[in-house]
Amino acid sequence: MAAHLRVYRSEDDAETLPLPTPTVRVCLADLLPLVALAHRNNYAWLQDFLDDEVRISEDLYEVLQAFRCYRPSA
Q1: For each of the chain's 74 residues, which pLDDT tens digit applies?
Q2: Is 46 exposed, middle or buried (0-12, 13-18, 19+ CB in 10 A)?
Q3: Maximum distance among all alpha carbons in the chain?
Q4: Could you count the other beta carbons within 10 Å of the beta carbon of residue 19?
Q5: Could you give the CA distance from residue 48 to residue 64 in angstroms, rounded to a whole number?
Q6: How high is the pLDDT of residue 61?
Q7: What sign results for the dihedral spanned by CA atoms 56, 67, 39, 10?
Q8: Which of 73, 61, 70 shows the shortest CA–CA distance to 2?
Q9: Cβ atoms of residues 27 and 33 within 8 Å
């Protein structure tokens, strides 16, 4: 299944709802294996968080967008 990225409005947008302050910082290297395992094993609790917003750096976003369009040659 292809990953779908959503673009959220910037904080400068007047219509943006206030976001709760993040309380925990996690390295992507620690987070990804856990999320991948939960996704692979179809854990129901993961569904509860699918609509949660995750903040990432702009450069990671650009890499993910480029990767999304990437088609490996045969």
Answers
A1: 556 666 666 666 545 667 667 678 889 999 999 999 999 999 999 999 998 888 889 999 999 999 988 877 65
A2: middle
A3: 47
A4: 10
A5: 23
A6: 93
A7: positive
A8: 70
A9: no
Tokens representing 46 are 């993961």
Q: In terms of DSSP H, where are the helices of 1-74?
A: 28-40, 44-47, 58-68
The tokens 């094993």 sit on which residue?
41
Per residue, the 3-state secondary structure of 22-43, as one string, reads CCCCCCHHHHHHHHHHHHHCCC
Residues 6+ apart with CB under 8 A from 63: none
User: Judging by beta carbons within 10 Å of its beta carbon (0-12, 13-18, 19+), is residue 41 exposed, middle or buried?
Assistant: exposed
Q: Which two tokens stand for residue 17?
A: 């709802």
